[in-house]
Amino acid sequence: MASTYLDRILEYHREMAAGDHRSIDQVIDKAATMEVTRGFRRALQNRNKLGLIAEIKRRSPSKGDLNTELDPADLASSYERGGAACLSVLTDAEFFGGSVDDLRLARSACSLPVLRKDFTVSELDVLDTRLIGADCVLLIAAALDQYQLTAFHQLASEVGLDVLVEIHDEAELERALTAEATLIGVNQRDLVTFEVDHERAARMAGLIPGELVKVAESGVRDAADALSLRGSGYDAVLVGETLVTSADPVATITALIS
């Protein structure tokens, strides 16, 4: 298989993780002192309309700079006013220009549950997600072996985090189900070509068990895309580029979920 952008990002993050020698037990103890999370999955389930996870992202490997001067607090407040159900905040600095401060500022400016959007490759990454104040951690099936996926999911649940397991195809869905995932995101973007495949989301939605919360990620451009995904059975969509490049995020969210 051809090397992907994800491979390069994961190599960097694994190198960083290899140099982190903190005691896991001590960090777990510290995580146990954190305030109760806001309930990311709960905010998306059993809704009478499509939930929107509004993302704060400064740049991306595929599109370059999107909005490098954004104000995380101001944007989070706008997203909440527009009717977003949850936030997603990029904390990867090397490839996306994000930071832990972006997440903290965004979360403090609103009452929405927040997903830490980053590349989780170790137990300490899971625990740090809890320590920085996030409510949900992202586990990318393509980035982890089955042992890691299951163990990280269990650890996250133990320290009070919700877990969004991101998949791309049927094989990864089976792995997510084996890890007992209850919140599954289908990334419509191909890891090799970087192209968005809208048929992928429609196909995968019908395969995900009905009791699980389903999220469509990447390539949601407008209300027509959102409506189509809702019709396919998705509970929520995660939208980044469309929002961070919008002159009026409140109006954009309103249009997407109307």
Mind explaining what this structure looks like?
The structure is a single chain. The chain is α/β, with parallel strands linked by helices and 258 residues long. It has one domain: Alpha-Beta Barrel (TIM Barrel), CATH 3.20.20.70. Helices cover 42% and strands 17% of the residues. It has twelve helices and ten strands. It has helices spanning 5-18, 24-31, 40-44, 72-82, 100-108, 123-131, 146-158, 170-178, 198-205, 223-232, 241-244, 249-257, and strands spanning 51-56, 59-60, 64-65, 86-90, 114-117, 136-140, 162-167, 183-187, 213-217, 236-239. The strands form two sheets. It has an eight-stranded parallel beta barrel, surrounded by eight helices. Strands 2-3 form a two-stranded antiparallel ribbon. Helix 2 (24-31) runs parallel beside helix 6 (123-131), helix 4 (72-82) packs across helix 5 (100-108) and helix 4 (72-82) runs parallel beside helix 12. The longest helix is centred in the N-terminal third of the chain and has 14 residues, at 5-18. It is globular, with a radius of gyration of 17 Å. The model has no long low-confidence stretch (mean pLDDT 93).
Using brief descriptors, characterize the structure shown.
258 residues; alpha/beta; TIM Barrel; two-stranded antiparallel sheet; 12 helices; 10 strands; 42% helix
